[in-house]
Amino acid sequence: MRYEDTTVSVDGDGITIEHYGILGSPRTISFDAVMSVTVSNLGILGRWRLVGWGPGSGGRNWYGWDRARHSKATAYSFDVNRFWRPTVTPTDPESFLVSLPRSLDSC
């Protein structure tokens, strides 16, 4: 199953976070690289984070650029065995979760 919105997409190759890097470059994470997925509530501080470091996972979440994050409540962070955990706030969290492979559902 596929998922796509303006900030993140999921396809057969993995998860692509749009506007992730410092210069706004995208980042693709292969499913094989994901050790675990953490679902969390954004809270007040997380909702107003536009880009960069944010709360959660012991201060190790890194958010891509998202102007609409203030209207979202759910974040997904991916442990990819590095210090920073790429974190996304999809527009439709339920559809995003369904689009992930079953092997990540149990993480």
Describe, in plain words, how this protein is organized in 3D.
The chain has 107 residues and is an alpha+beta fold. The chain has one domain. 15% of the residues lie in helices and 33% in strands. The chain contains three helices and nine strands; from the N terminus they run βββββαββββαα. The chain has helices spanning 43-47, 93-99, 102-105, and strands spanning 3-4, 8-11, 14-17, 27-29, 36-41, 52-54, 61-63, 74-79, 85-88. The strands form two sheets. Strands 5-8-9-7-6 form a five-stranded mixed beta sheet. β2 (8-11) and β3 (14-17) form a beta hairpin. The chain is globular. The protein starts with a strand and ends with a helix. The model has no long low-confidence stretch (mean pLDDT 87).
Task: Please specify the SSE layout and strand pairing.
Elements: E1 3-4, E2 8-11, E3 14-17, E4 27-29, E5 36-41, H1 43-47, E6 52-54, E7 61-63, E8 74-79, E9 85-88, H2 93-99, H3 102-105
Parallel strand pairs: 7-9
Antiparallel strand pairs: 1-2, 2-3, 3-4, 5-8, 6-7, 8-9
Write a brief caption for the model.
The protein is an alpha+beta fold. It has three helices and nine strands, in the order βββββαββββαα. The strands form two sheets. It has a five-stranded mixed β-sheet with strand order 5-8-9-7-6.
What attributes characterize this protein structure?
5-stranded mixed sheet, alpha+beta, 33% strand, single chain, 9 strands, 107 residues, 15% helix
